[in-house]
Amino acid sequence: MDYFALVKEAKLAAPQGAKFRLALLAECSTQHLAPALKALFAREGVAVELYEGPYGAIRQETLDPKSGLYAFKPDAIAILSDARALRERFSRDDKGAEAFAAGAAGDMISVWRAIESRSAAVILQATLPVPYERLFGNFDEKAARSLPAAARRINRALVDASGGNVRICDLDSLASYLGLGRWFDQKLWALAKAPCSFECLPLLARALVDATRPQRGRAVKCVVTDLDNTLWGGTIGDDGLEGIKLGHGDEGEAYLELQRFLLALKQRGILLAVCSRNDEKTALEPFEKHPEMALKRSDFAAFVANWTSKAEGLKAIREALNIGFDSMVFLDDDAFERNLIRAALPEVAVPELPEDAADFVKALCELNLFEAGSFTEEDRARAGQYAAQEVRRSKQAAFTSPEGYLRSLNMKITVARFDAFHLPRVAQLTSRSNQFNLTTKRYAEGECAAFMKDEAGCYPFYVTLKDDLGDSGLVAAAILLYKGDALEIDQWLMSCRVLMRGVEEHMMNFAVALAKAKGLKTIKGRYVPTAKNGMVRDFFGRFGFVKTAERPDGSADWSLDAARYEPKPVYFAEQAGAAGHG
Amino acid sequence: MDEAAARLQLQEVMRDVFSDSSIEIFDEMTAADVTGWDSLNHINLVIAVERSFGVRLTTKDVAALRNVGGMLALLRAKLT
Fold it and tell me: What is the pLDDT of residues A518-577, one digit of tens each?
């Protein structure tokens, strides 16, 4: 990416999609960053509004509740710290890197706390690209008396203290990959306090755009991979089990590297799927018999091998896993197949793969496709949940009635008010759920916490579900506001993994019972259409709500008389919530 | 260095940086004569000139720049 090309792109860009308000607080100048950010957000369809805080005034801006920062009402606040801004302070300090880093990191963390008490915005804290002067040569890190040694320790402390509403934007990792010598441009620092060279500036901007992705509900959930010449060298159908290249030594090593990378992604909660033009039996052979395969059939949540087009294959995977095309990445060594998918399914991310299989993993990592704001137990367990889902689906076929099937699952459900323990997963679900989501309000952890604390004003609750086949974890959430004599549904969403299980019926029974207990006569809901949530267009109708208003944008208001609601039949055993909230 | 060619080349760079194809440069031309020649675009101009002419302007060079003639003199010195 060329900086000047991005500046031109920013001038012409007119993104039609969502708005995003990003504030920049920096110890470097941000004026050159702004056009690059505009262009790169626009590439994702996002119209970004930027607020550039005054240079070097992070404390003043964050401590003053009347500052421009808070008046701007940012969705996210990026804090670009710069080790060079610490140089003067460091040079007057002779306590060593360890003590200096503890103090400097503590200052930054106190800035986070100042923001958190005044705003629910997500905080994106940049790590400090580590400066290059080594006072002791190779002994520098051990001596711990130089600014680079301090910067490394500050970065460690920032990462350790992050979490909740504070996320790291790891510029040091980016700068190291690009080369710190390329990153730092001391002339631009001297003349304009620019954060880095113009060569690296577009990548700095992209790192910030990427870091906002989890919050914007744009997360990759599934990697779909081709087999022949992608997971192994050669063609299993032609070359046979002994002929394909896979495993230790030369070419086969390169393919094994990609397999190991995919396995690591699976362990981090990304679903894997196969989409290959092959006979299924042939395609499965390496998974069952090849001794060097790192990936096993059981690592894949879906396995499509047939002779239909790959676009059809991706559609089948989408159906099986209940995820959107925009949360899928498709890997294929064949440029022709890649282009077919790009044309047929433009929402699917289709990275260019280099000619040399040895470069596959590096090329994928440069694209930084797998952003996340958190890592929860649910992520770890997800692949297993999908495997259990397959068993449920086959079990379902054996029952004549849905009731009989649902009863046989021995489902245990918990409905509980938001608690601190579940907040990270609630926030994650609100940022990820696109389909079964009535209002698609994206609440960050801080905002969820505000609802949690507001006992007089609302009842925000989550739902967890498990059955004989596995623990589905936290699968749904809703926020119910007490408004006069009505209970107003501010947010209501559910993971598509638990469709048709009666979870939404149970939630509505709960909501109506809550309204009655609170003496509230009506329940009010709103449906706000998005490109994704067509499946819940008539959600309220199903429960006997009456439509009271409809707008040209397709959004509609619905109302239900609590006294006239008939509780829906459900088949759960109820369990108490984790933190003792009703 | 071909003086006239360099002048034309610099004019093109400036038209590009300031997004104004009507810019006609002259030696006494300063930031005050060009819409959009602010501190932001000043840095952009420096980088664009470096790239276009394949030279490196030092921090001192940039700090000493006063007008377009100064830039041309600098380029003349670097390129001969």
Answer: 999 999 999 999 888 888 999 999 999 999 999 999 999 999 999 999 999 998 988 876
Question: Residues of A with CB below 8 A from B39's CB?
Answer: 31, 192
Highest mean pLDDT of the ranges A42-46, A139-143, A197-201, A369-373: A197-201
**pLDDT at A400 (0 to 100):** 66
pLDDT of residue A579: 45
Residue of B40, B51, B56, B65 to mutate when probing chain A, most A C-beta within 10 A: B40
* Segments of chain B scoring below 50 in pLDDT: none
Interface test with A, best of B43, B61, B62 (most A CBs within 10 A): B43
List alpha helices for A246-291, DSSP H. Answer: 250-267, 280-289
Q: Could you tell me what percent of chain A has a pLDDT over 90?
A: 70
Query: Do B43 and A4 count as a contact with CB atoms less than 8 A apart?
Result: no
Contact of A403 with A571, CB cutoff 8 Å:
yes
pLDDT tens-digit series, residues A569-580: 998 988 876 543
| Inter-chain CB pairs, A–B, below 8 Å | 28
Nearest to B39 among A186, A192, A198 (CB): A192
What DSSP string describes A539-572? HHHHTT-EEEEE-TTS-EEEEEEGGGPPPPP--E
The partner residue sitting opposite B59, judged by closest CB among A11, A31, A190, is A190
Question: Are β-strands A122-126 and A486-494 bridged in parallel, bridged antiparallel, or unpaired?
Answer: unpaired
Per-residue confidence (pLDDT) for residue A397, from 0 to 100: 62
Alpha helices by DSSP H, listed for A117-211, are 140-143, 147-161, 171-178, 180-183, 186-192, 201-211
Set of chain B residues whose Cβ sits within 8 Å of the Cβ of A36: none
Inspect the interface and report whether the beta carbons of B48 and A4 lie closer than 8 Å: yes
Burial class (CB in 10 A: 0-12, 13-18, 19+), A569: exposed
In this prediction, residue A582 has a pLDDT band, given cuts at 50, 70 and 90, of: very low
A188–B43 CB contact, under 8 Å: yes
Set out the domains of chain B in order of their start, with CATH numbers.
3-79 (1.10.1200.10)
Mean pLDDT in residue range A395-420: 82
- Report CA Rg, chain A: 26
Nearest neighbour of A192 by CB, restricted to B16, B17, B43: B43
The minimum CA-CA distance between A198 and chain B, rounded to whole Å, is 8
Chain A residues within 8 A of B55 when measuring between CB atoms: none
